[in-house]
From TrEMBL:
<keyword id="KW-0050">Antiport</keyword>
<protein>
    <submittedName>
        <fullName>Na+/H+ antiporter</fullName>
    </submittedName>
</protein>
<keyword id="KW-1133">Transmembrane helix</keyword>
<feature type="transmembrane region" description="Helical">
    <location>
        <begin position="55"/>
        <end position="72"/>
    </location>
</feature>
<keyword id="KW-0813">Transport</keyword>
<keyword id="KW-1003">Cell membrane</keyword>
<dbReference type="GO" id="GO:0051453">
    <property type="term" value="P:regulation of intracellular pH"/>
</dbReference>
<feature type="domain" description="Cation/H+ exchanger transmembrane">
    <location>
        <begin position="13"/>
        <end position="419"/>
    </location>
</feature>
<feature type="transmembrane region" description="Helical">
    <location>
        <begin position="271"/>
        <end position="292"/>
    </location>
</feature>
<feature type="transmembrane region" description="Helical">
    <location>
        <begin position="312"/>
        <end position="337"/>
    </location>
</feature>
<feature type="transmembrane region" description="Helical">
    <location>
        <begin position="113"/>
        <end position="135"/>
    </location>
</feature>
<feature type="transmembrane region" description="Helical">
    <location>
        <begin position="182"/>
        <end position="204"/>
    </location>
</feature>
<feature type="transmembrane region" description="Helical">
    <location>
        <begin position="6"/>
        <end position="24"/>
    </location>
</feature>
<feature type="transmembrane region" description="Helical">
    <location>
        <begin position="84"/>
        <end position="107"/>
    </location>
</feature>
<dbReference type="Pfam" id="PF00999">
    <property type="entry name" value="Na_H_Exchanger"/>
</dbReference>
<feature type="transmembrane region" description="Helical">
    <location>
        <begin position="394"/>
        <end position="414"/>
    </location>
</feature>
<dbReference type="GO" id="GO:0015385">
    <property type="term" value="F:sodium:proton antiporter activity"/>
</dbReference>
Length: 543
């Protein structure tokens, strides 16, 4: 019962954090608030939560990675693929080697394999934490797309490196040939299993729906189980479950383009996944705060084992590793940028040199978060020979400290660094949106004209369809004028904004009137819910 109460307290802390972050006068990242609340729970609770590393990994990582793969902007990913791949793979290897050697140099008593494991698990960045900072700091969209794409891929590359380092620490053996072959199978097998599981589940679900209909809620539950299925299937064949979850999410984004899902299912599914993402990320950081006292205690014991009695050495190690990570990231970003500019100048292409503050912001935006926390919690408790895993608590503490420091530095540094900078709008995005709306409106008009003829031939009252069709077509023609690229089109845009404000006021009045009728018993609750849902859907369209 006490464990259940602690879990409920954590979920309430996640809810409370969303309100606290809005009440604070300064821009504090949401994860930091959640960590603080978790620490408060630990201070008030009489017992802690014992974590099973494998269970922790399975519960948190697959859905988060799946959702990252599903929602990553594919256009930005393909446009900046060279930069993203450099950051997601090259920077990870550079960080593992550089930071691993730095950590071993700082803490000689920590085995080299464990130092590389720590370096590998702090190499992935977290776009959720950056987004929390970006909500109060203007970050260019293109830079955000690059950071999101990097985090999608470096989650997998960093965790695969982490797996190799932990395996070397546990067994005491490492073969480059074996590691290379294993890495190839992990990548190929993981991606293949992710795509295969998504395709198989999608085909089966469509077949069942076509023959037996679609039970309410079933598609959403299947979608929630999909990342776990991909992860477990890949792990069963000793491939990378991490890459399988990412690949399943990317495959799902293409499945979505088929448009087979019902509109109501898409709306409900989006809300469910938003809740899952918010809850899992929040619980992970609250859990970090709850574990901090125990982690700190274990880290002090590990520190005594390496010959340091003063606890300030923990702070020194944490800041030294964090500064080292920032320096490595800056060096890599600067070097790859110089190389890119050199290649473009050799090819005779015009190359615009980014502002130095934007370059530094890219380095500071390498915030660590959920993936680092989830991964480091999976460190095994014992080695193959039965001995305790060396410096396990110290490793977890240092990874947790890197998360805290990177969040704090980004939340303080990014707003000051980017303050006052003007970022040009990306006009092609508005042009793409207008073009898509124009094509959709023309398709809708053509479909209305065809449907009018078909319905008139089968209806007992065919005279009602011409007038109804003209009303609907007029709405779409208004949209076509609105998207036109001339002064009249811009005037229609202003009118459209004014119309949205008036519609929002009208919808609010509709909803209030419906609730008032239900409260006085003039309509049933069922009718009230149906009408309010229609109003809510209309309102969602204008937000």
């Amino acid at each position: 019962m006490d464990a259940i109460e602690t879990v409920l307290a954590m979920l309430l802390a996640v809810v409370a954090s969303a309100y606290l972050v809005r009440l604070l006068p300064v821009g504090v990242p949401l994860p930091l608030v959640q960590i603080g609340l978790g620490f408060l729970i630990a201070a008030l609770s009489t017992h802690g939560i014992a974590l099973d590393p494998e269970f922790f990994f399975l519960l948190f990582l697959p859905p988060l990675l799946f959702l990252d793969g599903w929602r990553i902007p594919k256009t930005g990913l393909l446009r900046d693929k060279a930069v993203i791949l450099e950051l997601a793979f090259g920077l990870v290897i550079f960080t593992v080697i550089g930071a691993g050697l730095l950590i071993h140099l700082l803490i000689p008593a920590m085995p080299l394999a464990v130092a590389f494991a720590l370096a590998a698990i702090v190499s992935p960045t977290d776009p959720i934490a950056v987004s929390a900072i970006a909500s109060r700091t203007p970050i260019p969209k293109r830079l955000m797309h690059i950071l999101e794409g990097e985090s999608l891929l470096n989650d997998a590359s960093g965790l695969v490196c982490f797996r190799f380092a932990v395996l070397a620490a546990v067994t005491g053996k490492f073969s480059l040939t074996s590691a290379t072959l294993t890495f190839v199978w992990l990548v190929v097998g993981g991606i293949s299993m992710g795509v295969t599981v998504t395709a198989a589940i999608t085909w089966t679900q469509r077949w069942l729906t076509r023959h037996f209909g679609e039970p309410p809620g079933s598609p959403i539950l299947v979608n929630l189980l999909m990342p776990f299925g991909a992860y477990l299937a890949a792990e069963h064949v000793h491939a990378s479950g991490i890459l399988a979850a990412v690949a399943a999410g990317v495959a799902m984004s293409y499945v979505e383009l088929s448009g087979h899902a019902h509109a109501a299912t898409r709306i409900q599914r989006s809300a469910v996944w938003d809740t899952v993402q918010f809850s899992l990320n929040g619980v992970m950081f609250v859990l970090l705060g709850e574990q901090l006292p125990h982690i700190l205690k274990g880290a002090k014991a590990s520190l005594e084992d390496v010959g340091h009695v003063n606890s300030w050495w923990l702070v020194l190690y944490a800041f030294a590793i964090s500064l080292g990570l920032m320096a490595l990231r800056f060096i890599w970003v600067w070097a790859t940028l110089r190389l890119t500019l050199y290649k473009k100048s050799r090819a005779g292409e015009a190359a615009e040199r980014p502002h130095w503050r934007l370059l530094l912001a890219t380095s500071l935006a390498g915030v660590r978060g959920a993936i680092t926390l989830a991964g480091v919690m999976t460190l095994p408790l014992v080695l193959d020979n039965g001995q305790e895993f060396p410096a396990r608590d110290l490793t977890i503490f240092l990874a947790s400290a890197v998360i805290l420091i990177s969040l704090a530095v980004a939340s303080i540094g990014l707003p000051r660094l980017l303050n006052g900078m003007d970022f040009p709008e990306e006009p092609h995005e508005q042009q793409e949106e207008d073009r898509a709306r124009e094509v959709a409106a023309n398709a809708a008009i053509a479909a209305i004209e065809r449907a009018q003829i078909d319905l008139m031939s089968t209806s007992l009252e065919p005279d009602v369809y011409p007038q109804a069709a003209s009303r609907v077509i007029a709405l779409y023609k208004h949209r076509l004028v609105e998207y036109a690229e001339h002064d009249e089109g811009r005037r229609y845009r202003k009118m459209d904004n004014a119309e949205k404000e008036l519609r929002m006021a009208a919808l609010a009045a509709e909803r209030k009137a419906i609730y008032n009728l239900a409260r006085h018993g003039h309509i049933s609750d069922e009718i009230s819910r149906k009408l309010v849902r229609e109003v809510d859907l209309s309102e969602a369209r204008f937000r």
